[in-house]
Amino acid sequence: MNPMLRKLLLALALAASLPAASQAQWREPPRTMEAAPQRYTGCRAVDGDTLACRQGRVRLRGVDTPERGERGYRAAQRELARRTRGGTVTVVPHHRDRYGRLVGDVHSRSGNVGRSMDADGYSKRRGARR
């Protein structure tokens, strides 16, 4: 086989395998915090899956919404604000993410906010369900 053709085929095979590797299944880190419910107040939606509260930032576990500039960002942010209207939520801590945010199950009067937003289609099609 022609050496140039061999290199081309090898490069194509490598390029074809890259998307599959980058879309590998995300695995949730283990629980590293006590699962004791805590009341968080003064919360506002930073984006579709993060709240800024008086006690600190909270990343919703169970949902991964679009980032700023991506399609669906504003809708997810508005929906999180609607579901946490009143500013008080109950957080069951799970772990801290690489940015130092608390990741946990966030509950409002209507139940688990992250899970319900994911079930209602606010998550990205691919990616982490934190």
Short recap of the structure:
The chain is an alpha+beta fold.
Strand and helix map with partners:
Layout: H1 3-22, E1 38-40, E2 44-45, E3 50-53, E4 56-60, H2 73-83, E5 89-96, E6 102-108, E7 111-112, H3 113-119
Parallel strand pairs: 4-6
Antiparallel strand pairs: 1-5, 2-3, 3-4, 5-6, 6-7
Provide keyphrases for this structure.
130 residues, alpha+beta, OB fold (Dihydrolipoamide Acetyltransferase, E2P), seven-stranded mixed beta sheet, 3 helices, 7 strands
Sheet having the most strands:
7 strands, mixed
Q: Helical amount among residues, as a percent range? A: 25-40%
What would the average pLDDT be, to the nearest integer?
87
Number of helices: 3
Note the beta-strand portion: 15-25%
Secondary-structure element order, as H and E?
HEEEEHEEEH
Keywords: Signal
Organism: Falsiroseomonas frigidaquae
Region (Disordered): 94-130
Domain TNase-like: 44-130
Can you walk through the features of this model?
- The chain has a domain at 35-119: Beta Barrel (OB fold (Dihydrolipoamide Acetyltransferase, E2P)).
- 29% of the residues lie in helices and 24% in strands.
- The chain contains three helices and seven strands, in the order αββββαβββα.
- The chain has helices at 3-22, 73-83, 113-119, and strands at 38-40, 44-45, 50-53, 56-60, 89-96, 102-108, 111-112.
- Strands 1, 2, 3, 4, 5, 6 and 7 form a seven-stranded mixed sheet that branches.
- β2 and β3 form a beta hairpin.
- The longest helix has 20 residues, at 3-22.
- The chain is elongated, with a radius of gyration of 19 Å.
